[in-house]
Design a protein that fits this description.
The complex is a heterodimer of chains A (about 230) and B (about 375).
Chain A lengths: L3 E14 L2 E14 L3 E5 L6 H8 L7 E6 L2 E2 L5 H11 E4 L11 H6 L9 H14 L15 H13 L5 E5 L7 H16 L4 E5 L3 H4 L4 E6 L2 E7 L1
Parallel strand pairs in A: 3-8, 3-9, 6-7, 7-8
Antiparallel strand pairs in A: 1-2, 1-4, 4-5, 9-10
Chain B lengths: L3 H8 L3 H33 L5 E6 L7 E2 L2 H6 L4 E7 L15 E4 L1 H7 L3 E2 L2 H9 L3 E5 H7 L6 E5 L11 E12 L9 E4 H7 L6 E2 L1 E6 L5 H11 L7 E5 H9 L5 H30 L1 H10 L3 H37 L11 H27 L3 H7 L1
Parallel strand pairs in B: 4-9, 6-8
Antiparallel strand pairs in B: 1-11, 1-12, 2-10, 3-11, 5-8, 6-9, 7-8
The chains are: A alpha/beta (about 230), B alpha+beta (about 375).
């Protein structure tokens, strides 16, 4: 591991729920080196997803700074964050979140619509991404025609198609059976090892966390290293 | 354009719902096309009215007649270049449904007054020579398949003949056209002299006068001067522009413009409710998908544009189909009703207005759902999903 890709310094996140203030993250410091594969575990409401949202520029900290790839996200406007996300980060969700009206190929191509690539180039890159996740033969299938594991592979292809340095996975195997979950996790390992993607994965599943290089435990807004893989 | 597939696919997410919405838009714009086309016929006369001509009618109403003796007095009024007259004959051809304007006129004067009417010289000379001769506009000749040399019997509804008959027969001596494509040529003109001699009553009268203003003459002053001459006479006059005359003539049928506006207003208001509801439902159903688009890097504006474009696309699909069918029907109506209501026409202006209305309706129907999509919080939407 080399340079630090993402750094959180003194990050707090407080939500207003009615009249009550809820502090989800408290003065959190975290460094994620380039090429790391981190699993974040912890009970529900511990702040795991909030941490992921901050790293992905979907949310802003109440205090502290979030820096990813040299860009300080906390000071960016919404449209700057949109632009940054499209270039630097890929998201993988528990329920895949594919667009049901588009084929697998078109779903994968979606992030490339935000680039200046020609339609031919977009198609080529989407095909490569589908090939990497082993679904080249399912390109013309709609999400409803795919299994859960295949849908998640398409979602992974969509996450990597614009070649981001950081992949953020929110319970990527939470909706899958054990065998399929392991396949997806092995794919994430390949993306980490062979393609150099830095991966931050939130999970409840201890077995899933084993696939990461290191595991962090999140509880009551603070992080604690559990073990090194 | 690179978002078009996404917009298209989203528009057809619920096929039946989209089809029903398109159908309602289709019906609205079909109605728009038909009413515009028919409305055009009612205001066609107003649009082509010549600002250099004035019309003199009886002060009481168009139905009341004016003495023929007024012509010379009007002609001698300052600012008047020339004067002619016409009278509403009100007959029909073969069947009461075949009604169209027929005017007894002084041929040379009338054609001098309306230089936009073109007729071959030999036909015009033949018309002038033949006491029972008549000329018709090309539109009318096409409708009834008349050709020069035909004998045309017109049944009178007002003007019975001195011999007690109600059938007036005319020799078709010529067919005229108009330089102005918007002006109707569904018109039959015949000799006033013949009419005057053969009618049973009201001899020595005409329906209205048409005067041409001299160069530099002030229309208002000339109108006042003409009317002043006949003040306190048994037949006082009212002089106005052709536009005002055409409008007052059309008001006999009711305020067509108001009726058209009210019908279209009601239709489009309903349309906005229907399509606005469709778009709201559509956005509600895919909150999480919109959040995913934003997560991938689509900006708030891009999401706003995608939802608005979808709304406009649905309007255009239904609206263009409605306008297209309306255009076809209007073509048919224009031919079938050329005699009774000439000038039915779906103008390029109406088509442009229709397309502008589609876009405007699309924006209005989609603006609130689009704003909702734009302001969507990614975290909240994903958490709800």
């Amino acid at each position: 591991m080399s340079d630090v890709l993402a750094r959180l310094e003194g990050v707090s996140r407080i939500y207003q729920k009615g009249k009550e203030k809820v502090e989800v993250l408290h003065a959190l410091d975290l460094e994620i080196p380039d090429g790391d594969f981190v699993a974040i575990m912890g009970p529900s409401g511990s702040g795991k997803t909030t941490l992921l949202n901050l790293l992905g520029g979907l949310d802003k900290p109440t205090a502290g700074t979030v820096t990813v790839g040299g860009a300080e996200l906390s000071s960016m406007s919404n449209s700057q964050l949109s632009n940054w996300r499209s270039n630097h980060v890929g998201f993988i969700f528990q329920f895949y979140n594919l667009l049901p009206v588009l084929t697998a190929h078109r779903n994968v191509e979606l992030p490339l619509l935000l680039t200046s690539f020609s339609s031919k180039e977009r198609a080529k890159r989407a095909s490569i991404a589908l090939d990497i996740v082993g679904l080249a033969d399912r390109a013309k299938h709609y999400p409803r025609e795919l299994s859960g594991g295949q849908e998640q592979r398409v979602a992974i292809a969509r996450a990597i198609v614009s070649d981001p340095s950081l992949l953020l996975c929110d319970e990527p195997t939470g909706d899958l059976d054990r065998d399929t979950a392991d396949e997806i996790l092995r794919l994430l390992q390949v993306l980490n090892k062979d393609h150099g993607k830095t991966i931050v994965m939130v999970t409840h599943d201890a077995q899933a966390a084993e696939f990461a290089k290191r595991i962090l435990h999140c509880d009551k807004g603070t992080l604690e290293a559990m073990e090194a893989a | 354009m690179k978002y078009f597939r996404l917009i298209w696919k989203n528009a057809w997410r619920k096929k039946i719902r989209t089809l029903l919405t398109i159908l309602s838009v289709f019906v609205a714009f079909l109605l728009f096309a038909l009413l515009s086309g028919i409305g055009y016929a009612f205001k066609g006369g107003v649009d082509v009215a010549d600002a250099e001509r004035l019309i003199i009618i009886h002060k009481v109403s168009l139905i009341n007649l004016l003495p023929i003796s007024y012509q010379n007095r009007v002609a001698s009024t300052d600012g008047v270049e020339s004067v002619t007259h016409a009278t509403w004959f009100g007959g029909y051809y073969q069947d009461t449904r075949n009604q169209f304007p027929q005017f007894p006129v002084a041929p040379q004067e009338y054609f001098d007054m309306y230089p936009e009417f073109n007729i071959p010289n030999e036909q015009f000379e033949a018309f002038k020579r033949n006491r029972t001769g008549a000329v018709v506009g090309q539109e009318l000749a096409d409708t009834y398949g008349w050709k020069v040399g035909d004998r045309i019997p017109i049944q009178a509804t007002i003007w019975s003949r001195a011999d007690g008959g109600r059938t007036w027969e005319f020799d078709l001596e010529g067919i005229f056209s108009s330089d102005d494509p918007r002006g109707s040529t569904a018109l039959l003109l015949f000799q006033y002299d013949y009419f005057e001699e053969a009618r049973a009553f009201a001899k020595g009268t005409v329906g209205w006068y048409i005067l041409r203003l001299g160069k530099g003459a002030d229309a208002v002053q000339v109108a006042r001067a003409v009317d002043a001459q006949f003040e306190n006479s048994p037949a006082e006059t009212k002089t106005s522009t052709e536009a005002a005359f055409a409008q007052s003539f059309m008001k006999q049928y009711g305020n067509i413009a108001l009726i058209v506006t009210l019908i279209l207003g009601a239709v489009f208001f309903t349309l906005l409710l229907v399509s606005g509801n469709t778009m709201s439902q559509s956005v509600r159903e895919r909150i999480s998908e919109l959040a995913v688009l934003k997560t991938l890097g689509f900006t708030d504006r891009a999401v706003l544009g995608i939802v608005l474009s979808e709304s406009i696309l649905i309007m255009l699909m239904g609206g263009l189909l409605g306008l297209a069918l309306g255009w076809v029907i209007i073509q048919g109506l224009a031919q079938k009703m050329a005699g009774f209501l000439p000038g039915i026409f779906l103008s390029p202006g109406a088509i442009s207005a229709g397309i502008a209305m589609m876009v405007a309706a699309g924006i209005l129907a989609g603006i609130f759902p689009a704003f909702k999509a734009m302001r969507l919080s990614i975290i909240d939407a994903l958490a709800r999903a």
